[in-house]
TrEMBL record:
Stated name of the protein: VLIG-type G domain-containing protein
Species this protein is from: Phytophthora cactorum
PROSITE patterns assigned: G_VLIG
PANTHER family: URG4-RELATED, VWFA DOMAIN-CONTAINING PROTEIN
Limits of the VLIG-type G domain: 951-1087
Lineage of the organism: Eukaryota, Sar, Stramenopiles, Oomycota, Peronosporomycetes
GO molecular function, one term: GTPase activity
Pfam families: GBP
SUPFAM superfamilies to which the protein is assigned, alphabetical: P-loop containing nucleoside triphosphate hydrolases
InterPro entries: G_VLIG_dom, Guanylate-bd_N, P-loop_NTPase
Length: 1087
């Protein structure tokens, strides 16, 4: 399937896996899930290997499976499950887990290591556990501790715990200089601002002179006269330019010329006079033309008349004789002209081609005459010949003789004789003289009749054609005169006011009305303009600035904030006495031909009330506007930043204890951080409006209005600029430096510097992007670029099992052993290269204890016994022959269906569909506006080809319930799926897993996020409920042993969502199953 594809194309992202979905579906349908059973016999041996990296590598080297390519490319941090294929009689797949050694410690053993082990055991019933010599020693110590006398009976009935504090990591921010960007010497750093957003940039405000601009609007007119009157009035005040486009000016020019008094009446009268004179001479010219035509044809035909009725020519002449050719051409010409031919009588039409017919029948006539002489008198035969010629002249008759036909022609060739002398006898010539003369006269008369009729027809036709041509020429001359007059009018309108403003009109007609796109030039007064520079890192690691373009501000507008979006756009917020204006400015990617890069405003939104502060979260597309009274209004952009809708309102005066007005705000991670002039900071959660306590992070009066907060280290640390607490001199009293606090509790995070870097200067302006911070040094006129290394203090506490083996709490020496049997990772099948008899006995006892602990869980084990199936071998290829071959079908089913995938997520009051378990980029979402495009973009990894290829029965089972009620745990035990489980919230959105049951049944298992949590809004819960109800055939509602108000609210939201899709026949009709947990045996009947 992929034989023609270069594997490096996937690495370079030139190909994607979904491009081969159709091939993979066909492969699954025919080769794996087909009706034939031939693949049950074909199998593959799977030998999983599990352990630490050094032990796994050693085992692969012993099996000659560790190549030079693996040595150079497989790094310690490249964790995952890898495969090495060996082909012999049966294909052998060596699967091995490659995970760091720190994942085998006690605190992390149940996470990645357990998941990898479960994945490997699902693919094969056999397992090789690779141990090092240290692991064997640890195993012996663990078995020794099991055999000690410390296993008192009371430990089966009591448990001791202690609280353990995890190792603390100190707070700190370390700045390391990466480079600097010099600013132009003529620039003023006081006007420079670093911009927040999707890419680093800074802005500079410069004065802009007065210039012309264009204002566009649409104007409607009911008729052309009204449009002409408006144009005349407009032309008196401004220069006017009309652009008719592909429609042309014909619809308007007559009315405009007449309305303006520029109608070319004299020129049009001259054109009409010329037409009258031409029409008078056209009739005489047509008569002369017709007369010439008639005379030419009459003379030509009369010149051939003797030849046409000559007896010798008629009998012996060839068909290509000029006389016959000319006559035939003329007859066809008359026949093709229906106007002439239809006016000729039938006899005249027949007589016209009389010579041609005589030519064809002359031999038959001569033959008949000869036969008549033999059977009758000469007089009777002569009279019969004369009568026949008269009738033949006006009737198209034909004489049949014995010599005609096939036998006659054969007889002439077999028995030739002198027919000419026999047929063209003197007697025949004498009898044909008078009939031919009469036929000649009749033919000449028909020619005269045809020419006479052609005279009248052609005269009328050619006269009309000439007049029509003259009138068309006149119309063209009139149109040219009118066009020249109209062009002169437009030229006059365009330049009649020298150096004045221009109005451009683009008219278009819709039925009777006229709609005009009017562009008017206006003078823009002198104001300020915003110039944007993008900060980029070159290939050599140096930083530089690239000018994106300029944007002219409205007169009297002051810049509040500017934010970068996409790759070359900004969102600009300005204030003026009229209110607040939000604009999206797109800068061109290439410089124009006149050398300027002027931004284009693609979106604008104005608000009637001015604001004092604002902030923008580019990831969530949220904009917060803060008024002086403490009122905060949040708006959200759509995915294409082309519309702005209100999101939420917040009153800081009611929710916080800050002193109004606030000095700065920051939007990050669904929270709004605000500072006041006294140096205090407080945060408000936007979803539940929970408020943190106010903490003073700066001295009172040191925080000025408009000072900027910024987030660092995945929003765990907040940075700001403030004055130091103590200064030695008056010169340094104006200097400010960088401070940092933790976003969780606003504790101070110390800021340190590597080398001689110190972000401390007068007028310091700082902004961060990921782990890079940009700071403007006003004194040196440069921008310093530093890398931040942020560490945040972690104080997690864990409850650990205390190894107390006596009632008084004293500990024995064996308590300090690291190898506790309940936590060690060796509770699995294993294999080692050096093993002794005592070690074998230790291993057997170890697995016996393991099986004892498993049986205490009271779970069905299906006859599993690790100690019974334990085997020991030391050869390099040990166990390969004993490994049973698995059917390819079963192996691929387990490989594809083991890992669940996320299919959707509820966020921002909407339901986001995931593609291959990942969120779709915003540019792709903006392109998928139609339902067909959205459906085509949905893909659930390898599960999508499996679903498309399945042709058997399909069952969909889903979970529903409150948060943290064990929904994922129940589905895992019920269906054998692998959903993540935890004591707290762990399911985000909806996840899908597939299990293949016996009797050709596909079980689609969907694990949904718990409802009713404070992280989700009511609308998001309704969306999840709608999706659950629409696709589920069997819904398990997981609940605790009570029916409280929260359950009632969940069902109310569920019913609200179901009502939206009620009555759709294409959806499933599922069943709802109530699963109640922790039911007391005495209450089972009541439940």
């Amino acid at each position: 399937m992929l034989s023609s594809v270069n594997p490096k194309d996937f690495e370079m992202k030139m190909l994607e896996a979904q491009e081969f979905d159709d091939d993979f579906v066909l492969f699954l349908r025919k080769e794996i899930f087909g009706t034939d059973e031939k693949h049950e016999a074909d199998g593959v041996k799977v030998m999983p290997q599990f352990g630490k990296q050094e032990a796994v590598k050693h085992e692969l080297q012993r099996n000659d499976c560790w190549s030079d390519e693996m040595e150079s490319n497989l790094k310690t941090e490249d964790q995952g499950v890898y495969c090495v294929a060996q082909k012999s009689d049966c294909t052998l797949l060596l699967l091995f887990g490659w995970i760091p050694d720190d994942l085998f410690c006690k605190s992390r053993l149940r996470d990645t290591a357990t998941y990898v082990l479960r994945f490997l055991t699902c693919l094969s019933p056999d397992m090789v556990c690779c141990l090092s010599s240290e692991d064997v020693k640890l195993l012996d110590r663990a078995v020794s501790s099991m055999n000690s006398n410390n296993l008192d009976a009371w430990r089966s009935f009591s448990v001791a715990f202690h609280v353990e504090r995890q190792e603390e990591q100190r707070d700190g921010v370390l700045c390391e200089k990466l480079g600097s960007i010099l600013l132009p010497m003529d620039s003023s750093p006081q006007n420079l601002r670093l911009l927040k957003g999707s890419y680093p940039a800074y802005s500079v405000v410069e004065p802009a002179p007065a210039t012309k601009c264009k204002e566009s609007h649409i104007q409607r007119f009911d008729n052309v006269s009204e449009f002409a009157s408006w144009l005349i009035n407009e032309s008196k005040q401004r220069n006017l330019r009309l652009d008719f486009g592909i429609m042309g000016p014909d619809h308007f020019c007559n009315v405009l010329l007449k309305t303006t008094g520029r109608w070319p009446e004299k020129e049009l009268k001259d054109v009409k006079d010329m037409l009258e004179r031409s029409l008078q001479t056209s009739l005489e010219q047509s008569m002369d033309r017709v007369q010439t035509y008639i005379e030419e044809h009459r003379a030509t035909l009369l010149s051939y008349m003797e030849s046409l009725f000559d007896l010798d020519v008629l009998y012996k002449g060839a068909k290509d004789e000029p006389a016959f050719v000319t006559l035939n051409k003329y007859v066809q010409e008359v026949q093709s002209d229906r106007s002439i031919w239809s006016k000729l009588g039938t006899s005249t039409q027949v007589t016209l081609n009389l010579p041609l017919r005589l030519k064809n029948q002359m031999k038959a006539i001569a033959s008949t005459f000869r036969d008549g002489l033999a059977n009758g008198s000469d007089k009777d035969v002569a009279e019969s010949l004369a009568v026949f010629i008269r009738e033949f002249t006006v009737l198209d008759t034909k004489i049949e003789t014995d010599n005609d036909g096939f036998f006659g022609r054969v007889w002439k060739k077999v028995w030739p004789r002198d027919q000419e002398s026999e047929f063209l006898s003197d007697k025949f010539r004498e009898c044909m003289a008078e009939p031919l003369n009469a036929a000649r006269q009749a033919w000449f008369q028909s020619i005269e009749t045809a020419l006479a009729i052609a005279d009248g027809v052609l005269l009328k036709r050619w006269s009309e054609e000439t007049q029509q041509s003259l009138r068309k020429s006149c119309q063209a001359d009139e149109h040219k005169v009118i066009s020249e007059a109209f062009d002169n009018l437009l030229l006059t309108w365009r330049g009649q006011h020298e150096g004045d403003l221009m109005t451009t009109v683009h008219p278009r007609v819709r039925q009777m009305a006229i709609f005009c796109d009017v562009e008017k030039e206006q003078w823009k007064p002198a104001t300020d303009q915003l110039k944007i520079f993008k900060l980029v890192q070159n290939d050599n690691g140096d930083f530089s600035s690239v000018e994106l373009g300029t944007h002219r501000l409205n007169p009297g507008a002051a810049i509040l904030k500017a934010f970068t979006i996409k790759n070359h756009c900004i969102v600009l917020v300005t204030t003026s006495p009229k209110g607040t204006l939000v604009e999206r400015v797109d800068f061109p990617l290439q410089r124009s031909w006149w050398g300027e890069k002027i931004g284009k405003v693609s979106f604008t939104r104005s608000f009637g009330r001015p604001v004092s502060l604002c902030d923008f979260n580019v990831d969530e597309r949220l904009v917060a506007f803060v008024e002086e009274g403490g009122r905060v209004v949040l708006y959200r952009f759509n995915e294409t930043f082309s519309s702005l809708e209100i999101y939420k309102r917040l009153e800081l005066s009611l929710r916080t204890s800050l002193t109004l007005p606030v000095a700065g705000v920051l939007l990050v991670d669904g929270s709004l951080y605000a500072t006041d002039t006294s140096g205090s900071i407080q945060s408000v959660n936007l979803k539940n409006q929970q408020t943190s306590r106010a903490v003073q992070i700066m001295p009172s009066g040191s925080c000025e209005p408009g000072s900027s907060l910024f987030a660092m280290a995945d929003n765990m640390v907040l940075g700001f600029v403030g004055e130091p607490k103590s200064e030695d001199s008056a010169e340094n009293s104006e200097c400010v430096e960088l401070f940092a606090v933790a976003s969780e509790d606003f504790r101070t995070v110390p800021v340190n510097y590597s080398g001689n870097v110190a972000l401390r200067s007068k007028g310091l302006c700082v902004q961060s992007f990921d782990d890079v911070v940009f700071a403007v040094n006003e004194k040196r006129k440069k921008i310093c670029v530093c890398r931040l290394a942020v560490t945040v203090r972690s104080e997690s506490l864990r409850i650990q099992h205390s190894k107390e083996h006596s009632v008084n709490g004293s500990k024995t020496e064996s308590d300090g052993l690291e190898g506790d049997e309940n936590h060690h990772w060796l509770r699995a099948f294993y294999h080692t290269d050096v093993i002794s008899e005592p070690t074998k006995e230790s291993c057997r006892y170890f697995f016996q204890v393991m099986m004892r602990d498993l049986r205490k869980l009271n779970k069905p084990l299906g006859g599993m016994d690790f100690a019974r199936d334990l085997a020991f071998s030391t050869e390099s290829n040990a166990g390969r022959d004993n490994v049973a071959a698995l059917p390819v079908r079963s192996f691929l089913q387990e490989l594809i269906t083991f890992v669940p995938i996320q299919i959707c997520r509820a966020e921002a009051n909407s339901l986001t569909v995931m593609t291959n378990g990942k969120a779709t980029p915003m540019d792709t979402q903006s392109q998928n506006l139609q339902a067909v495009d959205i459906a085509r973009s949905i893909r659930f990894g390898l599960l999508s080809p499996l679903l498309e290829s399945w042709q058997g029965r399909c069952i969909v089972i889903t979970s529903m319930g409150k948060q943290s009620t064990g929904k994922s745990y129940l589905l895992n035990h019920l269906t054998g799926s692998s959903f993540a489980i935890a004591g707290a919230r762990c399911t985000d959105g909806a996840w899908m897993s597939i299990r293949i049951l016996p009797k050709n049944v596909l079980l689609v298992v969907l694990d949904f996020e718990g409802l009713g949590s404070f992280e989700r809004t009511e609308q998001e819960d309704v969306f999840l409920s709608i999706l659950n109800a629409s696709i589920s055939m069997f819904t398990i509602f997981r609940m605790e042993m009570r029916f409280d108000k929260e359950i009632d609210v969940l069902f109310a939201r569920f019913q609200k969502g179901v009502a939206l899709i009620k009555g759709d026949p294409s959806l499933f009709r599922g069943k709802l199953y109530m699963s109640v947990k922790d039911v007391n045996p005495n209450d089972q009947k009541g439940v």
